[in-house]
Amino acid sequence: xxxEHLSASASPxxxxxxxxxxxxxxxxxxxxxxxxxxxxxELHPWFEKVPMGRDEFSGRATQxxxxxxxxxxxxxxxxxxxxxxxxxxxxxxxATNFQLHLTQTxxxxxxxxxxxxxxxxxAFDFFPFPQSYPVQCNTLWxxxxxxxxxxxxxxxxxxxxxxxxxxxxxxxxxPAEMSKGSVLLYTGxxxxxxxxxxxxxxxxxxxxxxxVAWLRQEENQYLSVPREIAKELPESLLxxxxxxxxxxxxxxxxxxxDPIEAVRPELSRTRDGFGEVGDLDEVRDRLRREGSxxxxx
Length: 297
Ligand SMILES: O=C(O)CCC(=O)C(=O)O
Ligand SMILES: [Fe+2]
Description:
alpha+beta, 9 helices, binds fe (ii) ion, binds 2-oxoglutaric acid, 7-stranded mixed β-sheet, globular, about 25% helix
């Protein structure tokens, strides 16, 4: 089955519908090529010094540069891109809220073999999440064109419905080809992997992923982004990074204060000594909507 391509004007509902069906889709030409070049220029100093991967999974001819919120102003625009956030919000709407999970550019160099096919949600200690409850919604922005020959991500559309811990070969997958500035969206249950780079150029993608806010972040945003930088960031980005409570009370500071107080005290939503999301009425409503008999008193 081919990867579905949508236009940048597709509605969040439409994108979420395809993600529910296939666990992946490409949204064509969302960002101008020039924006991709800016990210690359801003990250140049790190690409100069970051070593290749240390094992086959991370790729011995692949460079990974993370910490993008701290290192690239332009990458921040991608993290908060409205097309992506709209779709992620719909795809993860079953949870109270979601947050940023990791930011990483992946540069697959010539000669790199295909990465083993995996599910990104295996990062959560291989916990067998129910298929009906996706915990992650991920993006891979094309910083260069993605072609089969240069290592376009290999995917198995619809594979979120398959059993867990399966093994696949390259020929079971297909390349998610896309032009520079397009973005591949996929949920955590999709079987996929980086493609073999059989060309002479480096394929570069920006992996920005989001997860339900009750799971631990893969890239620790509190420590990856120094406090001096965090203090200058807009509220919406800070909340997305985890300076917000997950579900009812996860992540508060000491006497249940809003975590944003650590960097921008003036934005605090602490009320009656309690931070932000702690709205029991909302929790009650959601449980009722889901047909639960459980009552929250
Ligand atoms: O770079 C890619 O195409 C995908 C890489 C990937 O799936 C991963 O490292 O988890
Ligand atoms: Fe992956």
